[in-house]
Amino acid sequence: MTKAELIEKVAEKTGATKSQTKKVIDAALETIMDAVAAGEKVGFAGFGTFYVSKRSARMGRNPRTGEKLQIEAFNLPSFKCGRIFKEKVNK
């Protein structure tokens, strides 16, 4: 499902216009990204939790040349799905 398809389906379910729905979805996603970027966890009961995983620095290898290289530490946005979401997917 694309973002446009999501907007269309949410607009149908809520009775709002597509432009209103787009604004709400954009604002919600931006708020979640800002909170996770600030190191906060964002959780929705039954759906899941967005959080930051920290990856430490390590040695890697270029698969073409075999040359060793240093991979720097970085933060990775992550998501852990909730129980209700898991159950719905596994029906």
Automatic annotation (TrEMBL):
Keyword field: DNA condensation, DNA-binding
GO MF terms, alphabetically ordered: DNA binding; structural constituent of chromatin
- Annotated coiled-coil segments of the chain: none
Record's keyword annotation contains Nucleotide-binding: no
Q: Which GO terms describe its biological process?
A: chromosome condensation
Give the source's domain of life in one word: Bacteria
The protein's matches in InterPro entries, at most eight in alphabetical order, are given as:
Hist_DNA-bd, Histone-like_DNA-bd_CS, IHF-like_DNA-bd_dom_sf
Spell out the family assignment given in the record's similarity comment: Belongs to the bacterial histone-like protein family.
| Protein name per Swiss-Prot or TrEMBL | Histone family protein DNA-binding protein
